[in-house]
Description:
Helices cover 33% and strands 27% of the residues. The protein has nine helices and 19 strands.
Amino acid sequence: MNASSLSVLERARADLDSVLDLTRDLVRIPTRGGIDPYDDAIDLLTTWLGERDLSPQVLREGTGAPVGVTARVRGGRPGPTWVLDACLDTAPVGDTTAWKYDPFAAVLEDGWLWGRGAADSKSGVAIFSHLAAHLVGDAENLAGDLAVLFDLDEHTGGFGGAKAFFEGPDAPDQVGGVMIGYPGMDKLVIGGRGVYRVRLHVHGIAGHSGGSRPTPSAISKAADLVRALEAEPLPEAADGFAAGRLTVTAITAGNGFSVVPDLCTLNVDVRTTPTFTNEHAVDLVTDVVAKVDADWADTAPTLIEARTRWPAYALASDAPLRTALLDAARAHGIPVQAKIAGPSNIGNYLAGLGIPATAGFGAVHEGLHAANERIRVDTVPVVQAVYEDAVRTLMG
Length: 396
C-alpha cells in the first residue's frame, strides 16, 4: 500500500463513526420501495449534505413525487461527470419474526450493523456522502464533476431517480461513468446479461364451462404457448456470459368455476447475451406466438406488450472506470475479481444510454433482501478509501 493510499484510508477510518451514524439514522427510517413515504429520509439526507456545502436537490418524476436525491462537486478543470450511485429505498422486510432484531432498530453488535437497508444500500449512501463532502474542499484540483445519486425508485424496478438524473432537463452533458455501490467486496460487476420482458395477452373465447359445446379457453391456449416458448433452444454460455434464459414468471386468468376465460396474461422474462441479443429475443417470442396463434385459428391473435428492453453489456479490460476501481482495490490489498453478472441491474439501463457502469463493491454483508440484513463494520473504511482513490484517479 503506497503512502497516498494510506492517508486516504486513515481519513476513511476517522470517518467511520460518522458514516455509521448516518447509516443508522437512515436505517431507522423505513424506505421500503413502493410502501413507505420517503419525506423523512429525504429531509435527513438533504440536511446532512446541505450542512457540508453540497447543495442537494430532490429529483422528482412527472407527478411531482420524489424519486431521488442528488448533489454535485464541481471540479475546477474541464472534464466529464463521474457518478457515485446508491439506492436509498430498500426491499421489504418480510416476516419480522425471522429477524434477530427489529429491522429498523439499526443495532450495532459484535462488529455488525443490522437492519433493512444497512447493506443495500444505505451504507453506500453514507460512504458516498462522506466522500463527496471531502472532495468539496479539493474541488479546484479536480477535472470534471462528481455527482452523488441516491435513487428512491430502485427496488420497485422503476429506476425513477436514475431516469430523472440521466434523462431529465438538468442531465450532465457528458458522463464518464457510474459506480454503483451495491455491497460485497469480492467481486466487481463490470457487465451483465440483458433483459427483454413482455406480457403476452392470450385470447380465447368466453363461454359457460358446463355448456354442451366447448369453447376455446385462453388458459389452454396459454399453456400451449408456455410449452412452445420453453421448448425453444437458446445459445450456450460464452465470453464470460451465462447462457441465455427464458422464464415464464406469472400467469393471470380466470374467475370462479363456471366461466371459460377469454383472456390469459403471461409474464415472460428473457435474459439476453451478446450472442443472443434483444433483437433475437424479440424474434423468438414473436415467431413462437405466431405459430401458436395459427394453431388456435378461431381465437384472436395474442397481443405482445413489451415492458423492458435492456442490452447485455461488458466493460472492456482497459475501460478507465473498471481499471480505476480494480487498481484502487488492489492497492488496498483487496483481491477483487471482475465479473459479468447473471441478473441484470441498473448498469444495463445505463448501457442503453451509452454510459459505462460498475456495480457491487461495498461493505461485506449478510442477509441481502432477506431477514437479518447486516454489514461488517470494519470493512466500511476500506470501501470508502477505494472509491476515493478511484475517483481521484479518474478526475486527476
